[in-house]
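Task card 7
Instruction: Convert sequence to structure tokens.
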Amino acid sequence: MEPGLRLLIQLVLEFAPVIVDLIQKRSEESLTTTNYLLPKVINEVVKAGNIITQNDNSGSSFEQTKLLQQQLAVYQRETQLKVASQERETALNLPEVYKIFDSWPLRLYPSQILEFHPNPGRTPLKVFLAPPEIKFDQFEHRTDGISEIELMLAEGLRKLFNQHYSLHNPIRPTEFLAGAWDSKRFHSESSIKAVYGILKTEPILILESENDGDYLNFRIAYWGFKQDKYYYKTIARLSYKEILQESAKSRALEWKTIRDQLLALGENLDEINLLGRDNVFNLAILEKSEKWQSQGIDVSKLSLQYQVNHQDFEKLCQVLINCHFLVAAWVADIYHLIHHDVPPLLPKLLPSLLKDALDLQSVQAIASGYKQVYQALEQERRYWVPELALQLAHSLSHLPDRSWAQEQIDYSIYIWLELRQVSPQEFANSLEAMQSAVRIEDEEYFQKLKEYFTAVNDRQSILSVDKLLDAIANLKHKRTLETANLKYTLTGHAGKVTSVAVSPNGEILVSGCADKTINLWNLQTGKLIRTLTENWGEVSSLAISPDGNFLAVGSCEHPKSNVKVLHLKTGKVLHTLLGHQKPVNVVAISPDGTILASGSNKIKIWNLDKSDACGGLCQRICTLWHSSAVHAVAISLDGTILASGSSDNKIRLWNPRTGDPLSTLNGHDGEVKSIAMSPDGQLLFSGSTDTTIKIWHLGTGKLLHTLTGHSDAVKSLAVTVDGQTLISGSADQTIKMWRLSTAELLQTLTGHSGTLNSLALSPDGKLLVSGSTDQTIKIWQIVLS
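Output:
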């Protein structure tokens, strides 16, 4: 087996488990050291079974989770970049005359190495070469000047790096720093530790080979981005003397062929031998060696010295170039895969680099290393594994034996089916099984799958994938678009309609108004049921309990600011909650019905125990202290997170049970007027006077997207029960419907002549209710077209 291939396989066997361990530790650390909410959210994201239900055929939840995994990975990288930047500045501030430079192995100062790459979001892997110092004078008849192996090695590697992994490559930036290592002075652990101590913020690979008699001990040192310790190990021991002598023997055999041809032409043997020079000597030794070996003599015990020349040293250099590059390419592939989601390149290069040296066993060993890394990435990026494995299969499809590429395809499809909870055992084959879970969002994956089967000329599989693509085309043709048509306009209030709410059974619509009245309507017919004229003051907000028994009413008329809890069906006031000193702008009841939140300049949390019908149990649990007016409140499905938006442009997250502040989200340039949460609790939506809607990842606080389209303040938000569509009402007198999976605007509803203050959806998602300052309430029929 070629030395370079043998070295690469040894690296994979040794190094792949190390990388797997690093990924696992990184995942564990991210679960324990990140924002308090991140562990729970990641666990929910990566457990596909908890996120994608069997009843969800839309694909939006799958795509949303996949997007979240990508956003989480990006968030983690950005955080690491910030930390690395701070540590880099610390390193740069160290005087470069410190004693550390007494053992500094590089010819470059840290400031030169720590210079920022033009693309700071994609930190390049830096590769240093610590070349061997071979005592060539032990070889007889060598040509002077051929000891400059470092220059030859650097030039050969430079050519390969520039061609495949250059610093300016936008996908796999890799910086090869030839000549930076002071090879004549430093080797081994102390030098590696010195470099790591200063450059731990930079991803670095050091290729070190050290002379050990007739052998080269080949070592690598590596640390990735923000890695808390370095890896340093001898991965192979190469006999450079054997390489040189094998080259000399090959030359001797080639000379024998030429000699015999010349003899056949009648040339004189002595004259021919004069032309052969050291080949004559080497051929004589080789023939004796073969003769003795045929007689059962163990020639390995004999000290057979072949004469070497510049050709043999060039051969040694080429072997070392291949060894170094194969190792560097594999490590670079793994680095860019882990940190930049870039598929490996080396499998595509192997045939040209190794020519006929590849065999199936070698390919399997190399590809197995990549697969180990993919499997380690499953926890944090499981939704991306099918595409990564498919990309690896593409890389391996160029090799003569495609069985290992097929294994990657099988692995890709297996994970794809597993994520969609499809059992392949129920179908004739895996491609047929995919038919049962096809979604429009899978088109790109299927196109790449077809490209692979085309590359390997698998016609039967191409036909199967064509069926999948046809199914997607049909889905596109039939794709439904949520739209809304006006069904009723309700009049009856004498002031601006400030709040609307729909009962959980979808039968009753409740509206609150600045005219100090509350109306109950039949949602299906639009008929007024009754008007409640209790001394409410100006009604600012309404909330109905999940069981439909209670209605909470907030008043913004100071000094009558209070919250009343009444029985919805009878209109009887059960409790008046006092304590707010400023107008109550918003009330909200948790999805489990146990707590009520009311917001003015503070948020008060009340115990709402439905089992006792508020019979003395509407006691204050805690107060959340805001410094400015609170306009919007939303409570998570499990009641553990309360989000509030205020006039200071900020969104704050709280634990409503304890009153503890959790985090603050900054991003709006105006007052936050509306807040909503996705049904699965993953996303938070906020509307502001800056006319934008922002979509946040609730767990990390990361801003995922900003929706623009309104021309005035966004006063109200609602999310459809399937989590696919966001609906926004604005002071620009319009209602907009947005598809969350693509962030596209689906429809703009017009008809109101005043600010949209409040939106509510029926439980089945078929009706949308809007309340406006134009004193009307509109009921819209949501239809599929």
